[in-house]
């Protein structure tokens, strides 16, 4: 017989039908949720399962497909691309070099296409640049300007001498030189650099440019640029000065009036960029034959500055410095502080190079003229023996040389060498020592031998004076 169910038991039975019958939370610690929360969990679980299905689809790709995806992603369809994971696979990491190669090949193809385009367009552009109509020339120049912004096109045009010539001619005929000279006053560094570079190219390759620059007072604008400190800029600037001043006396005087000698000597003293030193020494060499510039260079310390580079590794720089010193030496007989130069010159008397011998003997001859201190220094450095040895080598080589060559050597080497010996053997405290060294080192037979050969009269005259002593 069933017992009647109380009201409390009915409530317990209803409670057991709820979520808590499965887990009250006392043992597991689960939180209480309602029906709405339960439905949300089901929806989220469905979404995760859907993503898992897409991921499984990627795993079924064949090996060939995975390699294709890694090496050539551009060949994928859009839907395939979207399915890729953000993280790199091992295959993708291994194929990074192939991606770089692929990109390089694409760039190379584009580069070749640009070069071919410029090459095909060049003949027509050259024709347009040389047209008599300035409007046509202007439009052609605009096209060239656009093309040279591309590396491939620019390199193709730079390799064409005809194109460069046409471009320079277009700049010249359009009145480019006055405009370039005006831009040399610009405070912008880039404008200055491009202006002087263009002027330099015009001076080198375009007829009439030198006169045009002089007529526009270009020298007065170029010389102040020597105050800049960029070595490459200065190298171009000094080369422009050399081109403009060579064989032009008026240009040399303008450079002098603008303070050029002092700036050039300062460059020789303070810089070590070989090309700049070489171009600056070329300008000084040109100016050193000008009677007005010569004392200005010497007064600015040109002898000392040039002597700093006589022992360097650049043969062309050494040659330029020696010739410049030879030209200046007759104006530097009273200069002080030349001890180092005299020592270097005595050392260079041992060279077999005729040019070096010519310069060294010539400089020593001038610097020992009426200068007691220089005479004594040269004697102390072994200059007498070195001069005699230089004469011995010269006379031995002349026995096997052509008569014309002998005459040139006698004029350039023998005369200044004998003059230097004459200076060293008289009128200074070590004169007697020098005379004894001439005898000891067989200098007398050498001098007598020179008397028996065909020489210019100055050599004979000097030898007679030397024998007398």
UniProtKB/TrEMBL annotation:
Whereabouts are the ARM repeats?
A: 120-162, 175-214, 217-259, 259-302, 336-382
Q: Which InterPro entries match?
A: ARM-like, ARM-type_fold, Armadillo, Beta-catenin
Q: Name one GO biological process term.
A: cell adhesion
Domain of life the protein comes from: Eukaryota
Q: Name one GO molecular function term.
A: cadherin binding
Annotated Gene Ontology cellular components are: cell-cell junction; membrane
Q: Which Gene3D superfamilies match?
A: Leucine-rich Repeat Variant (1.25.10.10)
What SUPFAM superfamilies has UniProt attached to this entry?
Answer: ARM repeat (SSF48371)
* Family statement: Belongs to the beta-catenin family.
Protein name as catalogued: Junction plakoglobin
Organism (species):
Ameiurus melas
Q: Lineage in the entry?
A: Eukaryota, Metazoa, Chordata, Craniata, Vertebrata
């Amino acid at each position: 017989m069933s017992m009647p169910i109380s009201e409390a038991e009915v409530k317990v039975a209803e409670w057991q039908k709820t979520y808590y019958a499965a887990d009250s939370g006392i043992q597991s610690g689960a939180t209480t949720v309602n029906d709405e929360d339960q439905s949300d969990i089901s929806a989220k679980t469905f979404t995760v399962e859907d993503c898992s299905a897409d991921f499984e689809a990627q795993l079924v790709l064949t090996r060939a497909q995975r390699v294709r995806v890694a090496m050539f992603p551009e060949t994928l369809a859009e839907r395939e691309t979207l399915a890729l994971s953000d993280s790199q696979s091992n295959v993708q990491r291994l194929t990074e070099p192939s991606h770089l190669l692929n990109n390089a090949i694409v760039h190379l193809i584009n580069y070749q296409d640009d070069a071919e385009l410029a090459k095909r367009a060049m003949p027509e552009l050259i024709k347009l640049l040389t047209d008599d109509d300035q409007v046509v020339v202007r439009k052609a120049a605009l096209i060239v300007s656009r093309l040279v912004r591309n590396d491939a096109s620019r390199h193709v045009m730079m390799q064409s001498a005809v194109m460069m010539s046409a471009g320079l001619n277009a700049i010249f005929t359009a009145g480019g030189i006055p405009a370039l000279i005006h831009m040399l006053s610009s405070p912008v560094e880039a404008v200055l650099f491009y202006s002087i570079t263009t002027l330099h190219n015009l001076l080198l390759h375009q007829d009439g440019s030198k006169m045009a620059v002089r007529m526009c007072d270009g020298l007065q604008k170029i010389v102040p640029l020597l105050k800049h400190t960029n070595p490459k800029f200065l190298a171009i600037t000094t080369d422009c000065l050399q081109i403009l001043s060579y064989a032009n006396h008026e240009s040399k005087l303008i450079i002098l009036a603008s303070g050029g000698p002092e700036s050039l000597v300062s460059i020789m003293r303070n810089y070590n960029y070989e090309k700049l030193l070489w171009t600056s020494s070329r300008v000084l060499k040109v100016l050193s034959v000008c009677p007005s510039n010569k004392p200005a260079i010497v007064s600015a310390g040109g002898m000392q500055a040039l002597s700093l580079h006589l022992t360097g590794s650049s043969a062309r720089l050494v040659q330029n410095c020696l010739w410049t010193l030879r030209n200046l030496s007759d104006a530097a007989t009273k200069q002080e502080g030349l001890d180092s130069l005299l020592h270097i010159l005595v050392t260079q008397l041992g060279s077999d190079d005729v040019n070096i011998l010519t310069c060294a003997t010539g400089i020593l001859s001038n610097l020992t003229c009426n200068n007691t201190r220089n005479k004594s220094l040269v004697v102390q450095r072994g200059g007498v023996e070195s001069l005699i040895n230089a004469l011995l080598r010269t006379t031995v080589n002349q026995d096997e040389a052509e008569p014309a060559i002998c005459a040139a050597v006698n004029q350039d080497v023998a005369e200044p060498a004998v003059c230097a010996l004459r200076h060293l053997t008289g009128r200074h405290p070590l004169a007697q020592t020098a005379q004894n060294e001439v005898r000891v080192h067989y200098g007398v037979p050498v001098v007598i031998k020179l008397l028996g050969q065909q020489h210019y009269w100055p050599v004979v005259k000097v030898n007679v004076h030397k024998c007398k002593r």
